[in-house]
Design a protein that fits this description.
The chain is α+β, with helices and mostly antiparallel strands. The protein contains 6 helices and 3 strands. It has a domain of 97 residues. The chain has a 3-stranded antiparallel β-sheet with strand order 2-1-3.
Length: 150
């Protein structure tokens, strides 16, 4: 019985390492960042990257919208990518001084969520997407366009 458990643990470890070192597709979100009174930018990033944007520009200046787009990441290189883009100090402030261990846990959580959703195809209506985003702690706002109110 002990040999069976050890064999299963070794197989799971090998599968986990193979997943971490390979490319993986995760959903992207659109973040609208208000840099100043005259500058608003739209960026498409993995959901965990919005924490860095909120840290840099302020929580009230970053609005996140759930999108259908997917992006490809390599979990093993994701910490280095974020450090190159935002600087080690900013990434360490958001995810901790653990050389990417916490970030790796978050990415592995997204990978586990993806593995659970893969067997069946889920067709989500816009109302369900808004509720799912709200449950995940994602701030969703509708942008209004039109004339001034009088």
């Amino acid at each position: 019985m002990n040999n069976t458990n050890n064999t299963n643990n070794n197989i799971n470890s090998i599968n986990n390492n193979a997943l971490i070192q390979s490319d993986f597709q995760i959903k992207e979100v659109e973040a609208v960042v208000r840099r100043d009174a005259f500058t608003t930018i739209h960026v498409y990033v993995p959901p965990y990257e919005t924490n860095i944007l909120r840290n840099l520009f302020g929580r009230e200046n970053v609005t996140v919208f759930e999108k259908v787009n997917k992006t490809t990441i390599t979990p093993e290189h994701e910490y280095d990518r974020l450090c190159a883009k935002y600087g080690h100090e900013v990434v360490a402030k958001v995810f901790g001084e653990d050389d990417g261990d916490r970030l790796m846990e978050i990415v592995q959580g997204l990978m586990a969520d993806k593995a659970q959703l893969q067997p069946e195809s889920i067709d989500m209506t816009p109302e369900i997407k808004v509720e799912a985003g709200a449950e995940a702690g994602i701030k969703i706002k509708a942008e209004s366009k039109g004339g001034k109110k009088r």
